[in-house]
Amino acid sequence: MSEMGAPIDLYPIMTNQTSKMQLCMQYGFRNVIAKRRVYMPDEFVLTTICIELSLPYGTPLRYQDLWRLEKLQIPEYPLRNHFTFGLEDDATCLDGLQFATQLKELSIVNHEMDKSELTVLQHLTNLEILKLKGISLEVFRMKNIQNWKPIGHLLQLKELHLVDCQLEDLAFLPKSMSQLEHLNLQHNHITNLIGLIDNPAIQYCQLDVRNNPLNANDLPWQLECLKMRKVEVLY
Asked: This protein's superkingdom (predicted)?
C-alpha cells in the first residue's frame, strides 16, 4: 500500500490530473481535492453547470461545487456552426463532468461529441434519468456514436432516452437495470427488437420505438415476447 492507502500498482495509471482526482475520490480523499478548481475544456458545458449551480459570474468551479450538482441540462448551443464543425474544435467535450458523482438527471440535446464520445458517462453511476437526443460524432452528423458501452455502467437508471441518435444495435444496454421504468428509442435506425428481447432487464416498463424502420414480418412475435414480460410497447 502507498502512503495514500491506495495499492502501489495503481500509480502507473496516474499519468494525468484526471486519473489522480479519480483515485482521490475512490479512496476517500475527497477533502484533499474539494477546493481545487475543476478543469473543464468545454466552456459551454462549464458555463451551463455554473448557471445550474447559481455560481456568481467568474467564480471558478471547484470539486465541492460539482459534487452538489444533481440535475443538468445541456441544451443545443444556438451559435454552433455546423458548416465549420471539425475545423474549429467545435465538438462538445464532457471531460470534467465525470466528477459530478451525485448527478441524478442529465439531458444533452443536439450535440456532436468529441473523439472520447460518451466515456465520461460511466462514472455517473447515480444517474436515474438520462436523456440524449440528436447525439452524433463529428461533422454534419455523418458518423454515429461508436461506443455506447459506458451506458452499461448506469444501473440505477429509471428513464433512458436515446432519441435520434442513429442507433441500430441495442446489445450495449445493461442487463442489470432493475430500476428501469421507461426506455425511449424514438427516431433511430432500429429494424428489430431482438436486443431488447435478449435483455432480462427489459420488463415491467414502457418501451417507445416509434419512428423506427421495424421489420413488419418479425414485429408481431417480438411484441408478443415483450408483452409476456409486461412491457408496454409504443410503436
From this structure: Bacteria
